[in-house]
Amino acid sequence: MKKVGIAGVGEYLPKNVLTNADLEKMVDTSDEWITTRTGIKERRIAAKNEACSDLAINAAKDALKDAGLKPQDVELIIVATVTPDSAFPSVSCLVQHAIGASEAACFDVSAACAGFIYALVTAQQFIAGGTYKNALVIGSEVLSSVTDWKDRNTCVLFGDGAGAAVLKPVTSGGIISTYLHGNGSLGHLLTIPAGGSRMPAGQNTIDKRLHYIQMAGNELFKVAVNVMAEAAVKVLADVGLSVKDVDCFIPHQANLRIISAVAKKIGLEEHKIYLNITRYGNMSSASTATAFCEAAREGKIKKGDIVLLDAFGAGLVWGACVIKW
Ligand SMILES: CC(C)(COP(=O)(O)OP(=O)(O)OC[C@H]1O[C@@H](n2cnc3c(N)ncnc32)[C@H](O)[C@@H]1OP(=O)(O)O)[C@@H](O)C(=O)NCCC(=O)NCCS
């Protein structure tokens, strides 16, 4: 099996900024409540003419440039998303066409907020096994399109964005440990009930606002802390590492209090955590993807560092991976 590492990273954030002050004018909330309960100050919102693939294409171009890889040389494109432009064609096919990666295989992965880690691990398998020589992995979401802007319990949490990484074989380091898990029995805690084959779109589903995210926030909070902590410890232990060995922790950015609770539970020092939740909110698969990109670009990850990615989301699913930079 080949070792697989990160050859480049990229991101794209829509220009429109929605602040907590803006939300105060839309629902019965306050900057103080949102800041203390979630850590979020503002989030990006895609323009009317921007869909998931538009964000993904920009992040993809940025990552390919960073990796010095030509689009026509890309062999595999995986997009992690729960907000595709439409049920089909897949976002990965739209990206392939737009960037001119005519030789690439393409598919999307549905693992919600853990999607970027699921997609990274999937791409790693294809390269490690020798099927492909490289892969472009993207987490892209337009959560604003499935957010109920009348529901203060959820609308303050989410934002839009995309992050990407290029994977290639390496001679040492790279992705050294991975862990994926799920528990479908808790799927009801976070859903978009309508718009699929169970409840196709109709006037009734629209009237009942069933095309938007529904969430049991309190229950999810507890599960998130437990499974992210467990995943972190397990993925490190699998390669003989402990939390003390981690140089940079890149968690899913759902809630600052969840991240702090995970860090406390596993004994990780706060200064090792990379955060972009304050600026972007929860962007599902794009959260870990953009945080990874920004941590690398801001010099928060240095050669030889142990980087821990850890995410949790609807399904429920969760996953972690350790990268030696
Ligand atoms: C959603 C979340 C921020 C709510 O925080 P919380 O501390 O659990 O708050 P509660 O749900 O207990 O609500 C407390 C009160 O604030 C109110 N409230 C909810 N949203 C509010 C808002 N935006 N502004 C003001 N008040 C709000 C509630 O109505 C409730 O009022 P009540 O006590 O009168 O009923 C938190 O539970 C969370 O982040 N959960 C995890 C969500 C998550 O991770 N989702 C994605 C997974 S990938």
Question: Which terms summarize this structure?
Answer:
single chain, 325 residues, alpha/beta, Peroxisomal Thiolase, Chain A, domain 1, 2 domains, four-stranded mixed β-sheet, 34% helix, globular, binds coenzyme A
Bound molecules: coenzyme A
| Total DSSP E strands | 13
| Low-pLDDT ranges | none
Coarse morphology:
globular
Mean pLDDT: 98
**What characterizes the major β-sheet?**
5 strands, mixed
Strand content: 15-25%
- H/E series: EEHHEHEHEHEHEEEHEHEHHHEE
Indicate the CATH class of the largest domain. Answer: Alpha Beta
Rg over C-alpha atoms, rounded to the nearest angstrom: 19 Å
CATH-defined topology of the largest domain: Peroxisomal Thiolase, Chain A, domain 1
Major sheet strand order? 1-7-6-4-5
CATH superfamily grouping of the largest domain = Thiolase/Chalcone synthase
CATH architecture descriptor of the largest domain: 3-Layer(aba) Sandwich
Helicity range: 25-40%
Give the domain tally: 2
Number of helices: 11
Question: Which helices and strands occur, and which strands form pairs?
Answer:
Layout: E1 3-12, E2 16-19, H1 20-24, H2 31-38, E3 42-45, H3 52-67, E4 76-80, H4 91-99, E5 105-109, H5 115-128, E6 135-142, H6 152-155, E7 160-170, E8 174-182, E9 190-191, H7 203-207, E10 214-215, H8 217-237, E11 248-251, H9 256-266, H10 277-280, H11 285-297, E12 306-313, E13 317-324
Helix pairs in contact: 3-4, 8-9
This protein binds coenzyme A.
